Amino acid sequence: MEKIKVIIADDNSFIREGMKIILSTYEEFEVLGTCNDGREAVQYCQKEKVDVALLDIRMPNMNGVEATKLISEQTKTKPLILTTFDDDEYIIEAVKNGAKGYLLKNNEPDRIKAAIISVHNGNTVMQDIVLDKIKMSLGEKRDEVKIDTSLFTEKEISIMALIAKGLSNKEIAKQLFMSEGTIANYISTILSKGNLGHRTKIAIYYLTGKID
């Protein structure tokens, strides 16, 4: 099995090296290197084949949000934000800039491992607190629909609402009495119709009516 190639960018050497040690214990990963800031991370991803870049938010020279944008635009690397800061502004900006995941550092190693694998496989990983923060920062009422309803069917809008509440495909399927595969197909259609990059943008779009 080919290992997932990972880099870690964090200005705290203790956290950076600690994360490297932890991830190196998993046979699924190859930690290619570590970076002190976002600029180093971008340069590393431009030069080397990196599958997933773990990025802290607050770093000197270039922060994780700016690095996420450049890495998304200029490389095939998938950025995954891993931070102690759950500030609303950072969450929304990171998602807009192409972050494929947003996790807090207080997660258990196995959850971080699972998130890296999921992101590598093309999924978007956002823990519940992140979606809650998006909702709080936007100050929107859940029941107030702001999207262009003419673009979507009633069923698609129902699924978008449940995504905005933070439900997983399994939970949505159970609530709507449908299979997970059917829900996945609906989500693919929603992404295409709305020209949305990934699942979390569905939630933001549903809550704000804005794609960007």
Low-confidence stretches: none
Structural class assignment: alpha/beta
- Average residue pLDDT: 87
Sheet-strand content, in percent, reads 5-15%
Apparent shape: globular
Describe the main β-sheet briefly.
6 strands, parallel
Task: Explain what you see.
The chain has ten helices and six strands, in the order E-H-E-H-E-H-E-H-E-H-E-H-H-H-H-H. Helix 4 crosses helix 6 (128-138) and helix 6 runs parallel beside helix 10. The termini are far apart. The protein has 212 residues and is of the alpha/beta class. Strands 2-1-3-4-5-6 form a six-stranded parallel beta sheet, sandwiched between helices. The chain is 51% helix and 14% strand. The chain has helices at 13-24, 38-47, 64-74, 88-96, 109-120, 128-138, 154-164, 169-176, 180-194, 199-208; strands spanning 4-9, 29-35, 52-55, 78-83, 101-104, 125-126.
Secondary structure layout:
Blueprint: E1 4-9, H1 13-24, E2 29-35, H2 38-47, E3 52-55, H3 64-74, E4 78-83, H4 88-96, E5 101-104, H5 109-120, E6 125-126, H6 128-138, H7 154-164, H8 169-176, H9 180-194, H10 199-208
Descriptive terms for the model:
single chain; 212 residues; 6 strands; 10 helices; globular; six-stranded parallel beta sheet; alpha/beta
Short synopsis of the structure:
This protein is an alpha/beta fold and 212 residues long. Helices cover 51% and strands 14% of the residues.
